[in-house]
Amino acid sequence: MQNKRNTSSLIFKQFIKEDSSPFDKLFDIWKEIIVHTSGDVDESFEWMETLDQEYQLTTPEYTLDDFREDLKKKGYIKDDKDNPQKGGMKITAKSEQMLRQSALEQIFGNLNKRGKGNHKTKHLGQSLDKTGEYRDYRFGDNLGNIALTESIRNAQINNGIGEFQLTEQDLVVEETHHKSSMSTVLMIDISHSMILYGEDRITPAKKVAMALTQLIQTRYPKDSIDVIVFGNDAWPIKIKDLPYLQVGPYHTNTVAGLHLALDILRRKRNTNKQIFMITDGKPSCVREKDGFYYKNSFGLDPYITEQCYTMAAQARKIKIPITTFMIARDSYLMEFVENFTEANQGKAFYTGLQGLGEMIFEDYETNRKKRLR
Question: Residue 174 region, left (φ>0) first, then alpha (ψ -120 to 50), else beta?
Fold first, then answer.
């Protein structure tokens, strides 16, 4: 009798992407524009109208008015009751969260490829992240970490199969990585240079901030993230206000930013603490004790830079590393960053706007895998 082998047939055909709805097409564009306009809905629609005239984004069946109405119905925008005389709209809390999630997916889209779980350190402790290594059970060990298969095998070897007995001496536990939490302060330069020379540097920095905060809140809920901005002075901003972040007619008071960052971290209970600083320029301003602002936009002023180095050294003494992301490559700026980094024994990355988010994520992940001492 001839044996017949069952075969399953596979049919290959060209992938045809499903057409997205008119709303979804416009929504993808609007999400980008609303970040550039710092949450200004009316200005975002002026941009949309300009793009529509050039690229025919809408049709007679679905206009920008229809899109605006759908945004309102879906809860992304609402009437601006704070300024009723203007008759304008503003984005909602739903939009703020959506923009953070969108930035996360856009910048850190490869997160799900990296697997899940909290960070691990090289130190062993009680946790759910197992190492694959075993040791004898000790009083006080988490019972959930007992390796049943290995323990039963020990009992059979030690006591025989006839009268099965499992004693404390037979128990083994699987080692686990110690989980530690991280407190991070993200410093963002909002000096005027962040939009000078025809290059928008604040929008990518803003997207990175939204993505990083969303990452920490969703993937590492035990970690903390604070965002501060620095110009002539420094002040904290709420995560929900990140889409509205704008530059101002400011100099760069790096010292004020570092003062505030260290004050915030001193109040944190977490063992691991760090500062991320995104900047494109040299420090050009410090505030004196009498409230007077000393400013110098020309070159590197030792009076200002020495105070920066002092702050960097102070952070080093209390074991807070500073990672600087310099989005400019002028030689004299690199000289400042090198001296600053040496004073802190931290890290510095000279990067353009492209890849800034991925670089910050990589460094965040790396820092979380080691216990900062």
Answer: beta
Would you tell me the crossing angle of helices 302-317 and 331-344 to the nearest 10 degrees? 30
What pLDDT does 12 receive? Answer: 52
- Amino acid residing at 103: A
Question: Per-residue pLDDT tens for 42-63?
Answer: 999 999 999 999 999 999 999 9
Q: How many CA atoms lie within 13 A of 309 on its CB side?
A: 15
The tokens for 291 are: 């409230």
- The answer to whether 263 and 315 are in contact (CB under 8 A) is no
Query: How much is the pTM?
Result: 0.72
Residue type for position 286: V
Structure tokens given for 25: 């097409």
Measured distance CA(121)–CA(139) in Å, rounded: 23
The alpha carbons of the chain give a radius of gyration, in whole angstroms, of 27
Tokens of 48: 């949309």
* Structure tokens that stand for 299 in this block: 């070159």
